Amino acid sequence: MKFPPFQYHAPATSAEAIALLGADPEAxxxxxxxSLLPLLALRLAYxxxxxxxxxxxxxxxxxxxxxxxxxxxxxxxTDVGRSDIVGEKVPLVSAAIAxxxxxxxxxxxxxxxxxxxxxxxxxxPAVMVALDAQLVLQGPAGERRVGAGEFWRGPFTTALGAxxxxxxxxxxxxxxxxxxxxxxxxSGDFALALVAAGIESANGSCSAARxxxxxxxxxxxxxxxxxxxxxxxxxxxxxxxxxxELATAELIPTGDVHCTSDGRRKIARTLVRRAVLEAGxxxx
Amino acid sequence: MSxxxxxxxxxxxxxxxxxxxxLTLADLLRDELRLTGTKLxxxxxxxxxxTVLVDxxxxxxxxxxxxxxGGRSITTVESLxxxxxxxxxxxxxxxxxxxxxxxxxxxxxxxxxxLLEREAVPTRDQVxxxxxxxxxxxxxxxxxxxxxxxxxxxx
Amino acid sequence: MASAGQHDTPxxxxxxxxxxxxRVEDPRLLTGGGEYTADLLVEGALHAAILRSPYAHARIxxxxxxxxxxxxxxxxxxxxxxxTPLSAGIAAGLPIDGMKPTVQxxxxxxxxxxxxxxxxxxxxxxxxxAEDARDALVADLEPLEAVxxxxxxxxxxxxxxxxxxxxxxLDSERVLGDPDAAFDRAALRVGDRFVHHxxxxxxxxxxxxxxxxxxxSDRLTLWSSTQxxxxxxxxxAAFLGFAEHKIDVIAPDVGGGFGQKAHLFPEELLVxxxxxxxxxxxxxxxxRRENLLCATHAKQQVNEMELAFDGDGTLLALSDRVVGDxxxxxxxxxTAVVEAMGAAGNMTSVYRIESLRDRHLTVATNKCPTGAxxxxxxxxxxxxxxxxxxxxxxxxxxxPFEIRRRNVVQPxxxxxxxxxxxxxxxxxxxxxxxxxxxxxxxxxFLERQRAERARGRYLxxxxxxxxxxxxxxxxxxxxxxxNVTTHDTSTVRMEPSGTVxxxxxxxxxxxxxxxxxxxxxxxxxxxxxxxxxxxTGSTDQVYGMxxxxxxxxxxxxxxxxxxxxxxxxxxxxTAAHMLEVAPDDLTIERGTVSVTGAPDRSxxxxxxxxxxxxxxAVRPPDLEPxxxxxxxxxxxxxxxxxxxxxxLVEVDPGTGLVSVEQVTVVEDCGTVINPAIVDGQLRGxxxxxxxGVFLEHMHYDENGQLLTTTFLDYLLPSTTDVPxxxxxxxSTPSASSPGGVKGMGESAMVSAPAALVNxxxxxxxxxxxxxxxxxxxxxxxxxxxxx
Lengths: 284, 155, 787
Known about the structure:
Oligomer: heterotrimer
Order of helices and strands of chain B: EEHEEEHHHH
Shape of chain C: globular
Mean pLDDT of chain C: 95
Strand content of chain C: 15-25%
Structural class of chain B: alpha+beta
Distance between the termini of chain C: 59 Å
Low-confidence stretches of chain C: 1-6
Radius of gyration of chain C: 27 Å
Mean pLDDT of chain B: 96
Strand content of chain B: 15-25%
């Protein structure tokens, strides 16, 4: 199970990397490689060249201006998961990372690689969509920002152009209640379904709600109707049940060897219910 | 597919090799440097048998290109107990019957080594969680976890 | 048969036996010093990559090889048209009336019969180049209708393997006692259809082999990750036309086998043929995808089982119809019948059942051949029988422990002959049930279960009681239907220094034979374990069948104790001569021969050995100056270990996920050689049971396409899936085996799956339905909980 041949490039700047991508449409970006390299091992991909972003300046840092946390694309999942800034300002991100694969994968796997790979049951895209993150893309024409809700288009498909690089994500600070739930066959596996939830409460009722599901459609699903049903309500079992039904009734997930479509929808409903209760503070 | 010169440190020794970029770190260690203690159980990044330390962090050597290891310091199972006797972790593995066929063992030792560097006295759940990316088909895991806990307590 | 099978062994004087001696193999394996097949550096070796069939069943129109042959680094490209004239392939069958043998070609020739079957091979300078060239092969295949459902295939339709006249490889039925009458008068009948899925051994080290043919010496060496090197050599001679004495087969360190590596595969023939052709060593290291595709699969059976009880819950009769999915070819040597016929081999298990009707059918399908995997044949019917016992207990309002207590062979009934003519000379069946009930604290569990249910949490406890057929020699193999000759041999040599070298035909795949067999040899000769070295895994050594089927401990003990005895006698004779006492007055212990009761009158064993080799004047006249003996062991009787499993699980009704909170084992394997190793076998088997019941599934679609070909789809249990396991030991030594030793390597995979399934069904009682089809996936739970 050996990789097919390819050229290897190690640019020092994003401009160089973008130029390399532009010069060779069959070239692929290499971040941590934890999703790409297994595809090469199975010979499911035959890129002509890999453009390694490890040496590119400016893709590794985590900081905050108080309103959002900026997470560099080449930060490893381990470093993001251990970041105090992330843990304090956007704890949903830290919680989600704990579910991503296993430590050795997180030690190499990168934040940006995880987002750009766009696995249809991946944890972080759901959190990005739930928190209305902005993704910063750099291409030959310069930088552009894409809202997380528009970034994921389907399984392994994003708004990222063939000659663009995802340089960082800007994740708005979320200090309200939150919850991340996923169901997987084993710890560290891709989810059968997952949900990221954020609930702000005032005077015993929900004042703002964020609810995003993944693993149940090709791309993360923001449950807007369910969010609206939450706002103004008091979070309890009845409301959680109602919201869970709203969030999942219309879903037609893709089934696979791990779980049928129907099973995934049922699981998603359970997870939404639990996440709403937890984010709403009803469960400690 | 032109070659790439890779300079790296393995178990404290510096090496320079001209390699094809598609060579993995695991292949480099096993085939070029003849350090065959690192095993390949799946070559898909799942089983953990090929786990080594890269700058102290546990990493799948089957999911790292040899060129990506340039400038890095690699630690493999061959470095443990290199003084002619088993190190405390290895000795705890032997005392607790934490290995049977031995094929997964190097990966477990390296993952546990990284854990013990970070957490002097991990809890049983921490050990379980950290080692959940290493598959063993023989032991049922319990004695491996026992061994890591015992090594931590001894250390 | 009886006389050929009977071997007396001398009594065991345990010093090291019974102690958790640290393994002698560990320092090597802990430092990266183990040498597994892929680690071997064989100078000049080329690398083989095999193109595998993408279809379950297809006619091969052509395979375009020119581009691959001219690819950089390629030495040769072969298809079935090249290999078939050199070797027809692997012929496999069993000498049983009505059993249909098959021949599995080295590479498919004309027709391919399962996804993953080899179509062509490329040999190149490096593994990378071999795979590149393989990418350039183009196979033109015409898909044929695939047989994917064994039960449906019984009704007719297309043939899975056109060399067979129909899809039925073996159909066998027996009626013992009077099952019709028993079912007629039964106060309670419980029955169901139990579907056991297909999964596999999946050793962490894949298969692999390296062949080196040296034309100048006309010798063929095959290194292979195998459990049975001698058998390989004999079969290579038969299938390749090599002279057997010019073949060496070496099993280096082997990274797990679990039965899968107790088969000869086409790749082993292929690399030998290639090496002879190319006059270069040729290596093939299986990759994980290949291991999942085309190393043997296991366990797939449908059991339609019914039990008859009287009003007290006493078992009157059992009926079963077993359909085994055999795959496209018979794997050698166990064949496709290994599952369905294996099931029949222990149908009544630990229970008194006076009437039995069972039928087992093995069906050819267009899937990977079925082979041996820990607990062969027995796993599926155990799940069925133990599940029905629980159901009967619920109907009768008695506990699952009680119904088993009422039906196991009772202590005063030994020796007991089952209706299927297995002879149980001893056992602790009843004690095992009691010990298990005590260990799990059943009453307290019931309270906890009630309390948790009230909080919406669903706990379940399941149990399973078993015995295991171990130490399989020839007679025992025939008794269970597998008409194969099976024995093993060891040579024991004491060196002039008093140290001991044991060579044995047994092999090790992680079970620790280098240690346990050294314990046996050390005790047999009264020396320290540090004085013993055990060599396994090479045809340089004495002939035998290798390690499989929970027979290593019994066969190893028997052959080593028998071989050591004449050496011990010689030591005693010589020491007696030197000390001027009678040999019977002497004891050998801890490396010293001493006069019994007068320890100051003693000699070091090393001195006595030295005298035998080098001091003709001192040793007894007429004593031959050698301390080497070879003995076989072919026990005439099975050694039956027994025990019980309990599993405690929590089912999440909202996600369908199950967590295994606790597993408890009661194990009685007679004399324990090394408790730590026994416990390791039990725990490892339970992890495999958890995998088999909840995670592992060789999932074929309706076209015979295998959908689980990576470790992201075929899920092995990890640290977070397997709880700590509590083990309770009972000890009822075997009356017939050497030292009272019984095998135990398979018990967890015989019985723990049933306990796990029963635990889930216990948790699901409030939902009013049971799961009878495996694996237990979130979907199957959600279908019951209806959430």
